[in-house]
Protein 1
Amino acid sequence: MTIEVSYHETVSKLQEFAQFARGPFDRPEWYALLEQGGFHPVIVVGRSSHRIAALPLMAAGHGLTSLAYWFSFAWRPLGRDDELVDEILTAMAKDLRSHASAITLAPLPDEDGSASRLEQAFRKADWAVFREQPDENHVLHVDGRSFAEYWASRPGPMRTTLKRKAKKVDVEILTHFDERAWAEYRIVYRNSWKPAEERADILEAFARMEGGAGRIRLGIARAEGVPVAAQFWTVENGTAYIHKLAHTEAAKPLSAGTTLSAALFEHAIDIDGVELIDFGTGSDAYKRDWVETVRPRFRLECYDWRKPRGWMRIAKAMARRLARGNSRR
């Protein structure tokens, strides 16, 4: 099978891969937001007479890394999941040796086989590959339950909190982008425990894009008319994604965050009819109260052992692996 590998410095090439998008962070529009936000894409495309595949990458130091942002839930190759595409991925990995001595791929899911397929491709292409699990993803499989059935299975303190505090705030859930509500979201976030948003412009552009497509679920909780909690979700293809949530420190006694979360879970389950609620990445303990399944998120560090620049990185990666092994003993 003849495979052609090409490189592109703009994400426009990804338009032909729109059919393979499984979620918000696979779509060409998302990658376009990153490019418009100042990221410098390196789009690697592999093509045979039967299949196409793409690796959306960007320059990073002396190597390449996934074209992603820190609130991306997942990054994966674009294309079909079959042996013909696996051959293309291997050819792409081999060709990449002439373009970079180090490649980092993350955050990789493996419930769909992405991490394992890429690891196999880069190993076959004779890279030194190190696989780590630096993060995790929390999800809820609804399994046909109504919100009432789901809520009955939550921890007792959560249910008691909602029963006691729900009437202390008013909740509004919007299914379109609203300037006033987004301004309230920014106020809540600024007065919350969370650090300042590094690239609020990218997040807002993403929210506007999702709002225009009818996918946004923007929740605001107010106490006596003052916004005290805010959440930004999106819904598509049977999945609800929880992107951002915050509550003001001053309003913590109101448990407005719990009330707003419950309202959005109810909306997603009973009105949107989702099958999965994705709480994103991070090991925050509170997520385990809301969702029931934890999925790993992997990072692949790939080094070309033929190049001197890769030797030190391989040594450091091996030292980290050895240190982790010793810490488990």
Protein 2
Amino acid sequence: MSSAGQLSDLYAEFSKDVQFFLVYCREAHPIDGKNPGSKPVEDPISDAERRSVAKKFVADMNLEIPTLLDGVDDAVGKAYASHPDRLYLIGKDGLVAYAGDRG
């Protein structure tokens, strides 16, 4: 099962008790970047472009999890070392209760 499928399963099982949010950060492999990927996505240069790419990603992955958008300044990605992906559990007090490893 893909990581998106596993995440969707967790969301389905626990979303009544836990708030889930995905944060869409900088595209890891834009076609115009240092390590281009196979997806035909250019690196967005505005928040509007990033929003468009994020919407397509969420739709293509068939995700129902609420998704937030990191701006093109990558403030969230930098603060949480989000690449390639990370899982954080944040308590009601706002403190990080769990920080997962990369990937």
Protein 3
Amino acid sequence: SDLFPSHDREARTNLFTYSEQFNNAAWTTFRSSVSANIVIAPNGTLTGDWLSEDTTASNTHGIQNNTVGTVGATETLSVYAKQYGRSWIYLQLGNSHYAYFDLANGATGTTGGSGVVATITSVGDGWYRCALTGARSVSQINYIMLATANGTITYTGDGFNGVFLWGAQLEAGSFATSYIPTVASSATRNADAASMTGTNFSSWYNAAEGTLFANFKTVAATVFPQAALINDGSSNNTIGIDAQSGLRSLVTTLGVTVALYRDWE
């Protein structure tokens, strides 16, 4: 599942408000309508909405959000979608970046705009997370549109067909991170910093032997990018793995470094 992936938990902000409520005034439909809370969403709750087209001829059908980020910044627009009559959707970030997504086959279609990256990820039960990344060129709005095929968003609607939607997100960054739900205001998810203390730690820790292992990737410049650390509450007695001046593992006892390994690559 891509709902809560473990590899992308850096701090991010979902700039959209009412990220699961497409019938809210934060969202504006055009030649379409929204029926709220009629399908089970990817998180197992009855919060998925149905976006359906009207019968307008030779035009586009969809929904828009007027929230914008920073002109010149790389942003990622994403939404969870499931086919229901229509099997293609179109995402547009600002006025020059767009992509088509095939909800029947889990594939991306045509893209447009300099440096655009489009991804589609299955999260089960026919739901896909569709994401579009690009550098915002102007302060313009974002679109989610219905499509009849790859490259076709202008058509005559039948008054019924559409797609299910849930969990829209607009964030600054070059890829979509774990979904951050919002209501009346934007929301920020801090970077993960897990810790284990007290008997939860001492019940399994063996001070005489063992192996400390970490599989990690630094995604932002930090003063001290640390992946794993065991200590007694001070820096005097530690076992750690970090990326300070290259990959480093070390052991200190009574304030003295007794083991140190560096990989400068």
